[in-house]
TrEMBL record:
It comes from the Bacteria. Pfam families: GST_C (PF00043), GST_N (PF02798). Residues 106-231 form the GST C-terminal domain. CDD domains: GST_C_Ure2p_like, GST_N_Ure2p_like. SUPFAM superfamilies: GST C-terminal domain-like (SSF47616), Thioredoxin-like (SSF52833). This is Glutathione S-transferase. Keywords: Transferase. InterPro entries: Glutathione-S-Trfase_C-like (IPR010987), Glutathione-S-Trfase_C_sf (IPR036282), Glutathione_S-Trfase (IPR040079), Glutathione_S-Trfase_N (IPR004045), GST_C (IPR004046), Thioredoxin-like_sf (IPR036249). GO terms for molecular function: transferase activity. Belongs to the GST superfamily. Residues 18-105 form the GST N-terminal domain.
Amino acid sequence: MSKLDDFPITRRWPPRNPDAIQLYSLPTPNGVKVSIALEETGLPYDAHLIDFAKNDQTSAEFLSVNPNNKIPAIIDPNGPGGQPLALFESGAILLYLAEKSGQLIPEGKRWETIQWLMFQMGGIGPMFGQLGFFHHFAGKEVDDPRPKERYRAEAERLLKVLDGALAGKDWIVGDYSIADIAIGPWLRTLRDFYKAADIAGWHQLKHVPAYLDRFLARPAVQRGLVQPPRS
């Protein structure tokens, strides 16, 4: 029978509560998806900061949990069959936490919820991230306007899709779900960190701005956005 201390990562980031889910993350839009879900479900967790400034994500200990060297990752000491489970990819972790807790996938809306989760994973996250690179980071130094415009136009299109789907609803599938937990942090990042909302047609949207405000007003979201604390 495997134990939590069989995982090399626990020697670099020792568990404070060995019975809790061990979260290895950073407060980025992908990282906070998991901390928010943990706060919403009430599942006990132990948050460990993976510091990009120190290249923690490329350490042998972190790679032993996620060979793709991306945050977030978790180890659940009480996984299926009572065995520890290590898991990476934020979308997979959201699904796991929802199933473990019996929360955040509304009854009768499982596949609709997964559909919108995949919409974020395959569309909103990658496209917003590329727009952020070309608008806010080093990509803005690229003289050729075509890359930025490609991602700007796609971000605008995705926002319009989301806006239409939210008509008459507070949440993307009607009830609050892991799909909202996946989408909300990326909307916040586009607007507040990348400062790219205006060029992506934000002020033409009828429903998305209020949707983001509702999301950010949730107490569990506010708690999850700062986990793990930056040192």
